[in-house]
Amino acid sequence: MGASEAESSLRRNVAIHNRIARRYEALHGEIFNDLEQERLRALLERATAEIRNDRKPIEALDLGCGSGNLTGHLLALGAAVTAADVATGFLALVRDRYPGTRLKIHQLNGRDLGEIDDESFDLVTTYSVLHHIPDYLAACAEMARVCRKGGVVVIDHEASPNVWQSDGELERFRQEAPRFDWRKFARPSNYVHRIRRIFDPKHSNEGDIHVWPDDHIEWDRITEVMRARGCEPVFQEDYLLFRRLYRHEVYERFKDRCVDTRGMIFRRRSTSRES
Asked: 168: Cβ–Cβ under 8 A, 6 or more apart, which residues?
């Protein structure tokens, strides 16, 4: 993607998320449901336990904070949190949502974390964000850079590799699980997006999203980038994401048989010799 195209994609992404900030949680039932929130809370607890330094409180960066999903969990775990996003609509929402807490707001430039010093945070988290970033590997390198030695980086809620491979169990699950959603027929925007996809098969509703077989998150390359910058994987979780429109009984039947989403925790080495 050229510089002008990347800038155009960034502006579109910011405009979309500013517009939907107050409706974001209602639109994303795959995130804001009890099962996913319970899993996420457990992952963040695991991440804080993996930190190998004595700083208190933990200083955390919520990169691409959105409506403050991770920010809320991290504040509840006692962390001092910097909530960062490109969209001012989200930042205003998060500021209003968590007054009187250890919270700082930071507007991202959409290119890098250049305004953040090296080794500024004990915990760097990002959730359902990388697939919105054209150069997501550069974003991973930046997360490693701003993480302190002994600190951890959490990358969560991105498609697992089997999504791009032939997985019969996952296909069967996706056929059986969804309940009929009549509301989608009442949203005029759905018809607009459907028409746009006729002319651009990779058109997405929310900015630049890597969700295609030839354009998706490559976990092996993420691990290579993180290792090259001193961060070793310490935990990996592949799971079947629950969506509000899924039949719960079908999800329970398939959740141990197939997966479609991955989260990983990396810890930055305390010394150059640490493995």
From this structure: none
